[in-house]
Write a structure and sequence with these properties.
Strand content of chain A: under 5%
CATH architecture of the largest domain in chain A: Orthogonal Bundle
Mean pLDDT of chain A: 87
Low-confidence stretches of chain A: none
Structural class of chain A: mainly alpha
Oligomer: homotetramer
Number of strands of chain A: 2
Distance between the termini of chain A: 80 Å
Radius of gyration of chain A: 21 Å
CATH topology of the largest domain in chain A: Tetracycline Repressor, domain 2
Helix content of chain A: over 70%
Order of helices and strands of chain A: HHHHHHHEHHE
DNA sequence: TATGAATGAGCCTTCATTCAT
DNA sequence: AATGAATGAAGGCTCATTCAT
């Protein structure tokens, strides 16, 4: 006769189940938030999308704010991850920069759920301090990442930055973020080519030939 | 012989009174909205700030949406007006461009009530189509204005644009808008000088010496 | 130079104007009430239908209740008037009774504005005592009228009533009123012929051959 | 061997609780509606009468309309049930018919809460289509029931109907409904005996001696 | 771990009424 | 005689949150 399965397993399973549910809620919340926006999203909407009861949502996240925090964090991570993939290696540095810019733009312009959520909660953060750290972190990370990759490419092109290093990616990110809002409100104002051209010019302006 | 007293009829007085009240409501709404954000602003808050009853607010603006529309319109106008003042004449075109950029930046970074409202409703517009036309109009106007003034200065500096004319102001505006969000979330990331430098570089990149 | 028009005239005009406006309001209220029902009718609706301001309605009728009272009174009068016309003379008493019943039925089934109002306010009167006198009066009048005309015809047919006189018209009216509600809720349940047949049978049952 | 205890699961208990609450709300609504009428009844009144919060009422019935629908349905059922009891067996068919008519009349004249509600919502149904099906159903049922019982008695009395079968109960119901309104508005106009006499005469008129 | 029931504060809106003009 | 402005009390409804189970 074999011994009964160790209780450790049960506990582990339960633990896992909880984690899975929590993740499902965050993912459901992301979808709903992207669809309806913060102001129009209720916990009920999220519970329904997650296929759970309202009570379950509160079990995992005690307040709406807490959930939103997690959602934002997760969305930032996702966007950052996807941005990281933009900088895949390429032989030609010119081509590499251009295609990377294009990817970064599309990441914003195509409005994935996560990008929408970041934009939406960014606005909320104007009046909800609790959301700001996650966003600051996001920008910081995006800057770092951009810095690492872009500098490498530019140096490979025989250029060196004219501004202090940390500033450069902030500027590029800012330009992309600013343009995407205009693009959304008035899609005819900017084509994809316009954006790439603009960012390239800015990038060029930020570097100068290496002595 | 003197002209007769202006015909201030009763109707005119009443009409004026209504207009004043309506304007007071918009101005109160702007203040509250800037302070609390769209999602946390109720018509009650606005009524209290305006020193009126909730009923009075609804008398002048039948729905919250209608009021928000007017508030946005008004805020856009205000911001545009203030931006117009940024381009005061100056002898030295270099100095003029630099100081204008500074004004445009401060207009955003100082977060006047109107600028806050525009930023907030811009995010709302992601999920509320009714708000978009006013914003599109705002951007269009801002672009036109920037175009007129900046081009004059740059040409005076012996430069000419490298991109199609309508695109240039969109890019500059986008950069400023994008940077201000980062500045807000993480004020230490960017100094005023950083921004001016960035915008100048972008501006320079967008022009080339005249043949 | 002729003397100015006597002020009596002006007063008369003004007086008349007031009366006309008051009547317009009642007539507008009747239309709106018939269309929307008591519970869904606001004074604003009535004012708009009457082409006046809300204030004007209150000028003529201090409260909503007061106006409803007048509306009910007027509607009752109108219905009674139309019912009176039902009893136009006819040579053949059999034919006369039948055609009169038909008219009385159609008066109800066709749902003129006035008939709708009476039905609607009748229900309101269950919880609003102020409305009852007008309705009691209406029924009393209808009974009297029916009594006068019907009895004449029946006697001409060599019949005399088996129940006390005042009761008979109450019964006939009751039957018609009751049937019309069923007809409204479920139009297929009763044809016009059904109704006429029913009322005739009832009428016959209420009379017996004169000795 | 005894059967096992019934599986009163937690879910079952909760489900039952919900059902009870829902029923309490309908019953409270019936009382309030009978007392105040549709137009003057708010969900707050109902919640207070039910000893619950407004939120609880909305939890069980999402809108006022939905609740009213259920209330009407329930009231119709109750009235129909009570009417069914009117036709208890009796040896003497004459006596049976008379006493049944009396019961049917009193059901209306005594204004039980349910009867009031049916009358009130009947009027509302003039302007609210959603209420009509329940009422049509009610009339249809009342007609069927009357038909079954009355015909039996009349045939036992050696009589047979002169009109098509489905029509007869409609006519009797209509008469009773119509008379009760007059009775309510002007109680002195009709005595109980008057009504019984009237209905009997009508009933007699609708039948003829069997060949 | 998860649910269903219930709460209560708050929201947008409607509306009869008042009042200065 | 009539109007437009303003009020304030409800009204129906939403929603984050609590809690027993």
């Amino acid at each position: 006769m074999t011994a009964p399965a160790p209780p450790v397993t049960l506990a582990a399973v339960r633990y896992k189940k909880s984690e899975i549910s929590a993740a499902q809620i965050v993912s459901a919340a992301t979808r709903v938030l992207a669809r309806q926006g913060y102001a129009r999203t209720s916990l009920m909407d999220i519970a329904v999308e997650a296929g759970m009861s309202k009570g379950a949502v509160h079990y995992h996240y005690p307040t709406k704010e807490a959930l939103m925090g997690k959602v934002l964090e997760h969305a930032c991570d996702q966007v950052a991850d996807r941005a990281r993939a933009a900088w895949s290696a390429a032989d030609n540095p010119f081509e590499s920069v251009r295609s990377s810019i294009l990817v970064l733009w599309r990441l914003r312009a195509q409005r994935t759920d996560e990008a929408s959520v970041v934009a939406d909660l960014l606005a909320q953060s104007l009046h909800d301090e609790a959301l700001r750290p996650a966003l600051a972190n996001y920008y910081r990370f995006a800057a770092t990442q951009l810095l690492e990759h872009l500098t490498v490419q530019m140096v490979a092109m025989g250029l060196r930055p004219k501004v202090r290093a940390e500033l450069m990616p902030r500027i590029l990110t800012g330009l992309l973020d600013g343009l995407v809002m205009q693009h959304f409100v008035d899609p005819d104002a900017l084509t994809e080519d316009d954006v790439v051209q603009a960012v390239e010019m800015l990038a060029m302006g930020l570097f100068e030939p290496q002595k």
